[in-house]
Write a structure and sequence with these properties.
This protein is an alpha+beta fold. The chain has two domains: about 325 residues, 3-Layer(aba) Sandwich (Aminopeptidase), CATH 3.40.630; about 120 residues, Alpha-Beta Plaits. Strands 1, 2, 3, 4, 5, 8, 9, 10, 17, 18 and 19 form an eleven-stranded mixed β-sheet that branches. A four-stranded antiparallel β-sheet has the order 6-7-21-20, with no helix packed on it. Strand 3 and strand 4 form a beta hairpin. Helix 10 runs antiparallel to helix 12. The radius of gyration is 24 Å and the shape is elongated.
């Protein structure tokens, strides 16, 4: 695929400025039948950080996007008629607290809905994921539809949703109450329409997607019950154009400096833990990072000390490293270690004779693998075709989502928005606009059901 320079659009997602139009034209909608043989995903190179992972497992499948879209016309119409009910569920979900690591209340709501919809094999696993299955016509491995339960907002945050013109405004109304509401709507429509698919469909409400949750729920599911999944579609936030095919990898670290400290006058000359932390941050800020493959490094938090008139006996900083390349993640992880050691050594070299040296420790606090589902893969082609079927132009993107984990496990996976428009994510002024929201719901249903019809 011919791809030009990457253009940043947010802290989490960036788009490909140009996708090879010859590919998109092959999946553009002419009303003609389009099918694609599903070949194994090509072996990733080392720069994707996936060289040791298995290739995609599903082979020989065919996806007929146009036929799927047409066959679902009645189901799509019913979903459009239920637009207000989907929005009501979205508001209800947004107003249930679900901080990362404390998703149980929202998870209980989803579990009740799964039971009411007649899903089978419902369970809440060790990571507090909520899982339910819609059986298929065969015993083939399932397609997975997932949406994360957690939000970045701590317990005690006011979660009331208010209307502001065409917008709904409130913490988490978009990320990811929208994804959860549409996942439930798809499950309900499949149940109510008595639609049957070749493959089973696992609906999974995951935990720990945000921040230091470190994709905990997705890791647990795909290392356990979902290890043999045929493909995955993650529903995350709003939108009806984006198709995330590339998993943005990240590594996060907490660097700690510990010494004896003391009175700022009487103990002057003892090494200063905050000075060491600041020195490490300065060294990291001075690093030259590659534009391609795009790599970012940020000191997100820093702290330490007891009082203004004390030499700090402890200090720490937290570092976020991101890249689409496993090689770059490895390289700059080493740079973080070297910068931290050098800052500690520099501060110790300034200490007075007889004072105790600082110690330094680095603790990994998050690891998200990178990787890619090829734009040539039939799951992606089907998603691009479904996007055009609802009248939108596909936007191939990179992001850190639950889809990182199946991609890293060798399972074809994408992440998509669930309709409508949203903004100001991770703030209390987060908003969602449901104008044409049903387009995204129709797209999601088409992608999910088409994938569930894949042959072995």
């Amino acid at each position: 695929t011919s791809v030009k320079k990457l253009t940043t659009v947010s802290a989490y997602t960036f788009r490909l400025r140009r996708v090879d139009r010859s590919l998109i034209s092959r999946i553009a909608l002419s009303g003609d039948r389009e099918t694609y043989p599903l070949a194994p995903r090509s072996k990733p190179d080392s720069n994707q950080g996936m060289a040791s992972h298995a290739p995609a497992r599903a082979t020989g499948a065919r996806l007929d996007s146009v036929a799927t879209y047409r066959a679902l016309s009645s189901a799509r119409a019913r979903l459009a008629a239920r637009d207000a009910a989907i929005l009501h569920a979205q508001i209800t979900l947004a107003e249930i607290a679900a901080p990362t690591g404390e998703e149980h209340e929202r998870g209980a709501f989803v579990a009740r809905r799964f039971r009411a919809l007649g899903l089978r094999d419902i369970e809440v696993d060790e990571a507090a994921n909520v899982i339910g299955r819609r059986p298929g016509r065969s015993g083939l491995p399932p397609i997975v539809v997932c949406a994360h339960l957690d939000t970045v907002f701590p317990r005690g945050t006011s979660l009331s949703v208010r209307r502001d013109g065409a917008r709904l405004v409130g913490p988490g109304i978009n990320d990811n109450s929208r994804g959860l509401a549409v996942m439930l709507a798809i499950a309900e429509e499949i149940d109510g329409s008595r639609l049957t698919s070749r493959r089973p469909i696992d609906f999974v409400a995951t935990t720990g997607e945000e921040g230091l949750g470190d994709l905990r729920g997705a890791k647990r599911y795909f290392d356990g019950r979902g290890r043999d999944a045929a493909a995955t579609i993650a529903l995350d936030g709003a939108g009806d154009e984006r198709v995330v095919t590339r998993a943005l990898g990240s590594r996060r670290f907490r660097v700690s400096f510990v010494g004896t400290g003391g009175h700022s006058w009487a103990a002057f000359g003892s090494p200063n833990a905050v000075h060491a932390a600041a020195g490490a941050a300065a060294r990291l800020a001075a690093l030259r990072l590659p534009l391609e493959p795009r790599t970012t490094l940020s000191v997100g938090r820093i702290g330490g000390g007891i009082s203004v008139n004390s030499i700090p006996d402890h200090a720490w900083l937290e570092i976020d490293l991101r890249s689409t390349s496993g090689e770059m993640l490895d390289r700059y992880e080493r740079e973080i270690l070297l910068a931290s050691r050098a800052a500690c050594e520099e501060e110790n070299n300034r200490r007075a004779f007889g004072t105790r040296a600082l110690s330094m420790a680095i603790q990994p606090i998050g690891t998200r693998p990178c990787g890619e589902t090829s734009v040539e893969h039939p799951l992606v082609r089907h998603a691009l075709a479904a996007t055009r079927l609802v009248g939108r132009e596909p936007d191939v993107a990179t992001a850190s989502t639950d889809a990182n984990i199946p991609i890293a496990r060798g399972i074809p996976a994408i992440a998509i928005g669930a309709g409508g428009r949203g903004g100001d994510a991770h703030t209390q002024s987060e908003w969602f606009d449901n104008t044409d929201g049903s387009r995204g719901v129709s797209r999601a249903l088409t992608i999910v059901f088409g994938a569930a019809e894949m042959e072995d």
